[in-house]
Fold:
Amino acid sequence: MSQPLLTLDFLDTPTLPTPAVDAATHAHEPSGQVRVQAATRTGKSRKLYIESYGCQMNFSDSEIVSSILFEQGFDTTDQLEGADLVLLNTCSIREKAEQTVRMRLSQINSHKKRNPGLLVGVLGCMAERLKSKFLEEEKLVDLVVGPDAYRDLPQLIQQVDGGQKAVNVLLSREETYADITPVRLNSNGITAFISIMRGCDNMCSFCVVPFTRGRERSRDAHSIVQEARDLVAAGYKEVTLLGQNVDSYKWASEDGSESVNFAQLLERVALVSPELRVRFSTSHPKDITDEVLHTMARYDNICKYIHLPAQSGNSRVLKLMNRTYDRPWYEERVLAIRRILGEDCAISTDMIAGFCSETEEEHQDTLSLIDFVQYDMGYNFFYSERPGTLAARKLADDIPLDVKKRRLQEVIDRQQLHARARYARMVGRVHQVLVEGRSKRSEEQLSGRNSQNQVVIFPRGTAQKGDYVNVLVTSTTGAALIGEIV
Ligand code: SAH
Ligand code: SF4
Ligand code: F3S
Structure:
């Protein structure tokens, strides 16, 4: 996904080399970024303005919501001014994420005071977590809809049109929106998301997602492959398969004659077209199998990049986090990646600094794990207690904020050291790059990514968006590779 019309950074934690405006956005990243989604103009009578927060599941869901509402006579607009319906697709992952949305809501509410006909709705993870509290506290919210209830939107909007408030935050065990063709709002026409599963059954003790998104369920494999085919037919060159834990994807046909695991799904999508790059996110260290790694190795068009969040480098802390693996297990998975896919395969992580009772030595273990893996990229956060989670109920949030922040900075610094080295080792080599568009730094430069998901910038020559080009990398900024087409 790329080319947001508007990107505001609300990062509660700085992350890795910030690849400035040419940044590739990452499929898993709950960065706190907000994107106003692009406009579709087909002359429908009402206008929907939708903003998405949080992870790419939310961005992908906004495309489903737009599709459902398109059928109901809504075009999307990228201007708040003139919109008839404003939807915020919200994130609860950390307190800061919720604060950001609340601030935005109050801005929108003052806009509503000047435009009394405007309808305002809250979707996504905060809707699920706070339910009807929104209607009580934020008197100007008309609509609250949880992640599994989007099919109910037309009926709920009717209710609101009739002068009532409307809420549906029921979670489902089956809903995968498999039959809904998303309106590709988040796309540059080259890269797209395909949501392959919903929910999460893992119950990591710090995490609110199992509560906001409900039980894990996998989408029909045929509908996923069909979506990839349709995207290829429409000229797309890259798909990212999305799920909180893609390695536990498991789908079986109703008569039981066919069952598909993640490695098999990955292979089916890779076979759709050799011209289609396939990415996926997120991999859980407890589930990623050698079969998945061998499948990646077999297909050139499966990108050599794995987001493998460790959260901590210390086994006691991992146990408290209920991650169900320990440090030796994680290290072994990294060695398996290196064995099967080689040194070039990029690995990224999420780390939480200052989790409940984490000692200074245990924090050092996180730093030493970063040294062990030499991550290409990292998304790092300090621990933020979430109401209702296992950790909030059972563990004391006892690391002072200044200590959390200092540890986080040490994690970031260590990670950047390795990321810069990982960029530097790519200099002098030729990379296959999928051109995603013009570099925002210069009209004359194009920007794309290599298989490892590193941003590559080069003079445009005759290349076009959507082309695969070979680029000899001659230097690095530490956050992007610079080169020329050969
Ligand atoms: N399913 C993914 C993670 C989704 S949430 C996985 O298991 O890897 C994205 C990231 O947010 C997590 O990996 C974690 O690092 C961070 N996160 C989740 N809850 C958090 C909390 N309470 N405080 C700080 N960071 C948190
Ligand atoms: Fe949250 Fe853990 Fe599920 Fe990831 S695997 S979404 S961190 S509960
Ligand atoms: Fe994603 Fe945030 Fe929900 S990270 S799953 S939008 S809590």
In short: The chain has a mean pLDDT of 90. Residues 30, 93-94, 206-207, 209, 244-245, 282, 284, 309, 311, 350, 352, 381, 383-384, 386 surround S-adenosyl-L-homocysteine (ligand 1) (CB under 6 Å). Residues 401-424 form the longest helix (24 residues).
